[in-house]
Design goal:
This protein is mostly helical and 270 residues long. The protein contains ten helices and no strands.
Length: 270
C-alpha cells in the first residue's frame, strides 16, 4: 500500500488510535473532573460530541495511509468482506490496542491531579463503574437509576457497531458516493459516531471499538482504578459485541445495498 509497507500502516493505526483515545477519554475526564458549566449544559452531549470530533481528527490524520481503521471491529469487518489481508489483522489489532493504551496514559498525564483527588475513577472504559454509568443510571440501579443487563449492553454494542460500519463502507464506496466527496468522509464518520452515541449509547456507553475499551482498561488497572474486570462485561459487550456488529454491518450492506448500486462506469458519469 505505502512505500514503508506494513510498518508504516501500523504506525498510522497506532497514532490514529492514540489521537482517538486522547480526545475521547480526555473529554470524559474533562466533564467528570473539571466541569466548567452547569450540569445541564456539560453532560452526555458533550461526551458524545467529544468522541465524534476525536474520531474525525483521527481519521483525517491516519486515513491517507490505512483508511484509518483505528478499531479492531473495522479491521475484522474489512478482512471478512473487503479483501483486507488476514495476515495483517493481528498486527493491526496490536497497534490499535497499544495506541489506545498510550492515549489513556496521555489523558492520565493531563488530568492526573484531578484523577488522584477523585480516587482514580473509571474515566477509561465503559461498563459497570464507569464515571458516567454511575452518574446517569446509579450504582447497580440505585437512586432510581436503571441497571442495564449484560445482554442489553451487548445488543447495544452490536447494533451501534453495525450502524458505524454501514456508514463507513457507504462513505468510502465510490459506487455510492463520488470520489470528489471523499475528503468529507472523516467528518461524516465522526458524525456517525455522534449519532450512535446519542441514539444507541445509553445501555453500554458505546465502546463500538474493542481497542478503545480494552487499552484504556489495561492502563486504568495499572494506575489503580478498581472494578474494571468485575464479571464478564469487559469481554462480552465491548469486545465480542463490536466484532459481531462490525461484521454484520458489512454483510448487510452487501446484501441490501451493493447489488442495487450503479455500475462503476455509471457512478463515474453521475
Amino acid at each position: 500500500m505505502q512505500k514503508n509497507g506494513l510498518f508504516g500502516e501500523l504506525m498510522a493505526e497506532f497514532f490514529g488510535t492514540f489521537i482517538l483515545i486522547l480526545g475521547g477519554d480526555g473529554v470524559v475526564a474533562n466533564v467528570g473532573l473539571a466541569p466548567r458549566l452547569a450540569s445541564q449544559g456539560y453532560d452526555w452531549n458533550t461526551i458524545v460530541w467529544g468522541w465524534g470530533l476525536s474520531v474525525m481528527v483521527a481519521v483525517y490524520v491516519a486515513g491517507g495511509v490505512t483508511g484509518a481503521h483505528i478499531n479492531p471491529a473495522v479491521t475484522f469487518a474489512m478482512a471478512i468482506k473487503r479483501g483486507f489481508a488476514w495476515a495483517k489483522v493481528i498486527p493491526y489489532w496490536l497497534a490499535q490496542l497499544l495506541g489506545a493504551f498510550v492515549g489513556a496514559a496521555a489523558v492520565y498525564l493531563v488530568y492526573r491531579d484531578g484523577l488522584v483527588s477523585a480516587g482514580m475513577p473509571n474515566v477509561w472504559c465503559t461498563g459497570p463503574g464507569s464515571t458516567f454509568g454511575e452518574a446517569y443510571w446509579g450504582a447497580a440501579g440505585s437512586s432510581g437509576g436503571t441497571a442495564y443487563s449484560l445482554l442489553t449492553a451487548t445488543f447495544a454494542e452490536i447494533f451501534g457497531t453495525m450502524v458505524l460500519l454501514l456508514g463507513v463502507v457507504s462513505f468510502f464506496d465510490n459506487r455510492n458516493w463520488a470520489k470528489s466527496t471523499l475528503f468529507l468522509a472523516p467528518f461524516i464518520v465522526g458524525l456517525t459516531v455522534v449519532m450512535v452515541g446519542l441514539t444507541l449509547g445509553g445501555p453500554s456507553g458505546y465502546a463500538i471499538n474493542p481497542a478503545r475499551d480494552l487499552g484504556p482498561r489495561l492502563f486504568g488497572t495499572i494506575v489503580g482504578t478498581t472494578g474494571l474486570w468485575d464479571g464478564w462485561y469487559w469481554l462480552v459487550a465491548p469486545i465480542i459485541g463490536p466484532l459481531i456488529g462490525g461484521a454484520l454491518g458489512v454483510i448487510f450492506y452487501d446484501i441490501f445495498i451493493t447489488p442495487y448500486l450503479p455500475k462503476e462506469e455509471e457512478a463515474a458519469e453521475a
